[in-house]
Amino acid sequence: MAITAQAKINADHYKVTLTTSTNTFIADEPEEKGGKNEGPNPQEIFLASLGACTCATLRMYADRKEMKLDSVYVELILERDEEKNETNISRQITLTGNLSDEEKKRLMQIADKCPVHKIMSNPIHITTSGA
C-alpha cells in the first residue's frame, strides 16, 4: 500500500503546507532560522511521527490483549552527528496502568514493532524526479 503526502511552499519563509490523504498542517522553521515558527520544523515532525506511532501501536496491542494500560508517554531525543553522518534517537517510554511486569516487558518489545520504527530502522531509498 502506497502512502502519499504533498508539500508546498510559496514566498513565505519557510512555511510549508503539508497535505496527506485526510489532513493538512503546517511545518515551519524557527525565527532564528528565518521562519515564523508557525509549526514544527521538519525534523520535529519526523521525530514526533515515531512517538505517535509508538503510542498508537502500544494502545492497539494493549486493547487487543485487554491489558489495563491507562496511558503511554513517549519522550524522544534526536541527535545528529554531521561529522560521522549518524543520527541517534533516544526513546523513553513510560507506561501507566495496572500492568504486570510481564505485560510491561511485552509492551516494550511491541514498541519496536511500530511501523515507523521499522521504517526508520531499515534502509530507505529515495528516488527524486522532476524539475
Task: Report what the structure shows.
With 131 residues, the protein is of the alpha+beta class. Helices cover 31% and strands 30% of the residues. Helix 1 (42-64) crosses helix 2. The longest helix is centred in the middle third of the chain and has 23 residues, at 42-64. It is elongated. The mean pLDDT is 96.
Low-confidence sequence ranges = none
Structural class of the secondary elements? alpha+beta
Q: Mind summarizing the main beta sheet?
A: 3 strands, antiparallel
Helix content: 25-40%
Order of helices and strands: EEEHEEHH
Mean pLDDT: 96
Shape: elongated
How far is the first residue's CA from the last residue's CA? 26 Å
- Based on CA atoms alone, the radius of gyration comes out at 18 Å
User: What spatial order of strands do you see in the largest sheet?
Assistant: 1-2-3
Portion of residues in beta strands equals 25-35%
Number of strands: 5
- Helix segment count? 3
